[in-house]
User: Fold this.
Amino acid sequence: MAIERYNAPEREKHWQSVWESRDVFRTVTDPSRPKCYVLEMFPYPSGRIHMGHVRNYTMGDVLARTKRAQGFNVLHPMGWDAFGMPAENAAMERKTHPKAWTYENIAAMKSQLKSMGLSLDWSREVATCDPSYYVHQQRLFLDMFARGLAYRRKAKVNWDPVDQTVLANEQVIDGRGWRSGALVEQREREQWAFKISAYSDDLLEALGTLDKWPEKVRLMQENWIGRSDGLMMRWKLADGTAPAGHDELEIFTTRPDTLFGASFMAIAPDHPLAKAVAAQNAALAEFSDECRRAGTSAAEMEKAEKKGFDTGIRAVHPFDPSWQVPVYVANFVLMDYGTGAIFGCPAHDQRDIEFAKKYGLPIIPVVAPKDEPARGKTVARIHEGAAYLDDGVMINSHFLDGLSPKAAFDEVARRLAKERIGNEPVATRKVNYRLRDWGLSRQRYWGCPIPVVHCDACGIVPVAAKDLPVVLPDDATFDQPGNPLDRHPTWRHVSCPKCAAPASRETDTMDTFVDSSWYFARFTAPDAVTPTDQAALDYWMPVDQYIGGIEHAILHLLYSRFFYRAMGDTGHAGLRNLREPFAALFTQGMVVHETYRRADVEPPQWLLPTEVSFEGEGDARRGTEIATGKPAIIGSIEKMSKSRKNLVDPDDIIAHYGADCARWFMLSDSPPERDVIWTESGVSGAGRFIQRVWRIVDDVVGGRVAKGTPQPATVGPEALEVRRIAHRVLDQVGRNIEGLRFNVAVAQLYELSNALSGALGKSGDGLDWVVREGAELLIQMLGPMMPHLGEECWARLGYNTLLVEQPWPKADPALLVDDTVVIAVQVNGKRRDELTIGRTASKDEVEAAALQLATVVRALEGRPPKKVIVVPQRIVNVVV
RNA sequence: GCGGACGUGGUGAAACGGUAGACACACAGGACUUAAAAUCCUGAGACGGCAACGUCGUGCGGGUUCAAGUCCCGCCGUCCGCACCA
Assistant:
């Protein structure tokens, strides 16, 4: 009799309401239990969830549910990264309010997430745009301000002309704003910054402790922080060549060992010395202006030719008063790194050698390979214009000759530390970092207000704690560009908290990355009256597994590492004062899909997957636009995006196949760190598997042994084999889930269900009992991945408990080892045969058995083997 | 330019240095059916052979090892990050 198909969409709603009504996912802070904090990067409420969210949140949910079954007290919260530009753009375009738009989106997306059946504790939900969240952020900010970790500075900033706001260095990608895509301009502005540079060394060093982070992310952060060890070195300027008041020039170098290869100095156009000369030299002033103009766009800067202007100043070599080198103003020297001045050693720096060739400066090799003829070749190549960067031995360098560059570095540092200009040493060791302070001011409305007041008399005055939060005014207008807070008629006009004189509220708001830099801490005690609750933090932190996209490798993940340190130093990170918020990080791949577009149209007109029909397969596969009947081009597989229209709506999939099907497909096949190609056939395959599980369970409950039947006395060999598979899979699936190898876990569950399907058609000693046992294990293991199907099957198997509340089953160790093993037999490393033998057989027994095999005898041709390698329970290799 | 990752059937992929291709998708053949859908069974890395079986096979070229997809060296290709950082 045909059984009824499992109606996923209908049953999923049922089980979701059961979970909700029993409040099974509420988490209580309970230090007596082992904890596990599973977190996925919270979404920006753009309006609807997309497949990337489905993948991300499915992975976290599987882990959270598994850990919960394994007895951990699991924290698995969700919230909204709710401030940001799109809300203001929507307000401008649609005449709505950012707040209304955001909260509507949150409601819609929350309902979508609920339809996925995620095991989230919604009682801990936070939205960063809610005053109940950002009041605490304002407190954190003021504490950081009091400690000098947040400060105001005048600086060159990245100005996004489209979003009309300042961007942090991390938010400029290839010279363009990360959000708007507009070419970023450099502008001088007063703005707020976080002193992330105070933690450069700690942030770098501690990367070494993050052994559960991807190597790639650690490396990216390492490069971003960019430590370099070198020397600050002061050069005297030759008398009469430099303007008054400039009798020395300080440079930073990481290659003091190449000091005897120096042939020029170069300084930034904005260097004080350059400005002093330019004041009297129109040609240089013109040159500097040109450099600055070219410098307005980072993209142009990359391609710019290296140019210099000889100032006529001469600098005196620290070891040889008679040796003078020219000082150039150069377009490639940056004012904000080191001292804005360098010495050029052309032979050992590719950029310097290009510069030297262009301006006819000497090129003196000072490092070369130890041995001829490599040395001769290297010197020749240097003179052809190829800088030598490898290790070697010092040459042409007086007292350094023969030393290694490393020893030469130390020797130069040692000698120059003793030399004096005035009372100061000529050179001191110095560590420089590429990492800049984090500019956090944004000239936008929809962000966390910076809680300070500008008073003519008192300067910058923090808003008193009792007056927090500084709340955004609801009645702002969005009908023109610029900052709505600036033009609000009343909001900014306040009296000074200190002297009560009329004063002006800060109208910049915080970068939204501030909001996401501590939300994970707030989740541990979302109702605390202080920003964090020390006891809750001490119990829950760090996040045991954080899951999100690689695009945050630097931005969010570096900011959060900094912010948690700053919270610690202002007393907000728990009594244990952990420094690292995320113990383990996993960066999942993207969801990609084929693209479709109309034929012969430029620019491309993209079509939605639902607008195209297909026939044929492989190379012969053709697409047709359904509406017009015209051919559609099947294009490359790309990240799902609105612009390419290669989108699949999670709602459609959930409504048609169910959430479990979408979840199962996301977990199958592709390793989670790689991209997954969304295909219709893959989804329907997942759907077929759901029905198959349903049929297995149906078969088990129909006429087979009942729930709780004791194990029969005899279990035949066929049944035993099924048991072995079930317990072996059980043993491995848990480990594979913990290791986030979901695709492998899925494959093993397929293997088990194949074994059960195969056994269902047969009869044998104890087989019915074994199949029921296997089916129950299958359902328990499937539970974290397809939780609705799991509950439905669990109930059908006769249980009136909830599967989600069942402990994780344990494999029987006795079933994990077989009495006999199959050993591969190789001759000269090539597999020739196999051998079935007792598991405990000795090496000698295995060797003897192997040598009797016909294939081996044939290969030996009567001679004794040269050597026989036996790896017990694995392999025999006969060397002839 | 610098740094990193990856490269396995038609496809997505598995594989503590130890039987390469588990599992899935697609495909082919068969069963059931008036038929289709659904389901079940079977097959399949390539080449040769009716078959038993043989030869080759994890981007290319070397090396280490009894044994290499896995370790080492050198290439090629693809992708990603950084890019005047002194």
Confidence is low (pLDDT under 50) at residues 296-302 of chain A. The longest strand of chain A covers residues 150-160. The radius of gyration of chain A is 34 Å. Residues 680-701 of chain A form the longest helix (22 residues).
